[in-house]
Design a protein that fits this description.
276 residues; alpha/beta; Carbamate kinase; two-stranded parallel sheet; 10 strands; binds adenosine-5'-diphosphate; binds ligand VHF
C-alpha cells in the first residue's frame, strides 16, 4: 500500500463525543479536541472540523435529555445550542491560541455551483490564515418544508462532501464506537473490528445498521455512505472512537487505529516535531 502524505484534513465529531450519557456537555472531551486540532494547525496541517452537537448542547442548556418530536422545536433547539456550542469551542480553541470560524451549510450550498464556489473560497481563505473552520448543518433551514432541495441526512455525509470538495487528504470520523465491525457490537457481543476497507463489498454494506444510542442519528449506514464518497474520490478515511479526541494525533501519525478506508496508507507531514 503506497503511503500518502497528509496535509489537509477534515475531522467529524458526533454528538456522542460531545455530550455525556447524562445529557451534560462533555467539556474535557471538547478541550482535548481543541488541543489536538490546535497542535495540528500549529504544526502546519490545514484542519477543518465538522461538528454535530447543536441539539445536544441545546438540550443541555435547557437541562433536558429528550429531543422534542416537532421539527420546528428541534430547529429552535439547534439554533439555541449552536450558539452555546460555538461559545465553548471559541473559548477552548483560544486557550490553545487558535482562532475558529463558523459555517452553517445545507446541501444546496455545496451543490449549486455559485453557492459552492463561495463556500469553498471562504474555507480556502480561512485555511490560508490558519483559522479552523467549524462546520455544522444549518438545521433551522434544512427541511423540505422550507423548499430546500434536499437535506443532509447527517453530518457524516456532510463531512465527506466537504472533505472531497476541498481536496482533503484524510477524513477522520470520531464516533462512540471503535470502528466498523462485522455487525453492531451494541447488539452482538462477538462482533469483530474490520481494520482495513479498500472497497465496499456487499458483505461490508450488510454489516452496517442504524444507531442504537440515544443521541446519535445516522448510525453506521451514514458512515459507510461517507466512506463511499471518500473511496470514490480515492481519498482516505479513518473511523475511530472519539472518547478521547487526542486519538486524532495518533491517526495522523499513521498508527493503525479503528477502521481505515482507502487504498493508500497515512504518511504524516514532515514537521520539526517527531511526534505529538
Ligand atoms: N457494523 C457496525 N459496526 C459498528 N457500529 C455499528 C454497526 N452497525 C450499527 N452500528 C451502530 O452505529 C453506532 C454509531 O453511530 P451513531 O450512534 O450515529 O454515533 P455518532 O453520534 O458517533 O455519529 C454504534 O454505536 C453502533 O451501535
Ligand atoms: N446538526 C445536528 C446533527 C445531528 C446528529 O446527532 O448528528 P450525529 O451525532 O453526527 O449523528 C446537530 O448539530 O445537532
Amino acid at each position: 500500500m503506497e503511503a500518502k502524505m497528509i496535509r489537509r484534513l477534515v475531522v467529524k465529531v458526533g454528538t456522542s463525543s460531545l455530550v455525556m450519557k447524562n445529557g451534560r456537555i462533555n467539556l474535557p472531551s471538547i478541550d482535548r479536541l481543541a488541543y489536538s486540532l490546535s497542535a495540528l494547525n500549529n504544526a502546519g496541517y490545514q484542519v477543518v472540523l465538522v461538528s454535530s452537537g447543536a441539539m445536544g448542547a441545546g438540550l443541555a442548556s435547557l437541562n433536558k435529555t429528550q429531543r422534542p418530536a416537532a421539527i420546528a422545536e428541534q430547529q429552535a433547539l439547534a439554533s439555541l445550542g449552536q450558539v452555546e456550542l460555538m461559545r465553548i469551542y471559541s473559548q477552548r480553541f483560544l486557550d490553545y491560541q487558535t482562532r475558529i470560524a463558523q459555517l452553517l451549510l445545507t446541501r444546496d450550498n455545496l451543490e449549486y455551483p455559485l453557492n459552492r464556489t463561495n463556500v469553498l473560497n471562504t474555507i480556502e481563505a480561512l485555511l490560508q490564515q490558519k483559522i479552523v473552520p467549524i462546520i455544522n448543518e444549518n438545521d433551522p433551514v434544512s427541511v423540505d418544508e422550507l423548499d430546500h432541495h434536499t437535506t443532509f441526512s447527517d453530518n457524516d455525509e456532510l463531512s465527506a462532501l466537504v472533505a472531497t470538495r476541498i481536496g482533503a487528504d484524510l477524513l477522520i470520523v470520531l464516533s462512540d464506537i471503535d470502528g466498523l465491525f462485522d455487525k453492531d457490537p451494541h447488539k452482538n457481543a462477538d462482533a469483530k473490528l474490520i481494520e482495513n476497507v479498500a472497497e465496499l463489498t456487499p458483505t461490508i454494506r450488510l454489516s452496517a445498521t442504524g444507531s442504537s444510542t440515544r443521541f446519535g442519528t445516522g448510525g453506521m449506514v451514514t458512515k459507510l455512505k461517507a466512506a463511499e464518497t471518500i473511496l470514490n474520490a480515492d481519498r482516505q478515511m479513518v473511523l475511530c472512537n472519539g472518547q478521547d479526541p487526542r486519538v486524532i494525533l495518533k491517526v495522523v501519525n499513521g498508527q493503525p487505529i479503528g477502521t481505515h478506508f482507502g487504498r493508500h496508507s497515512i504518511k504524516p507531514l514532515a514537521t520539526d516535531k517527531e511526534e505529538f
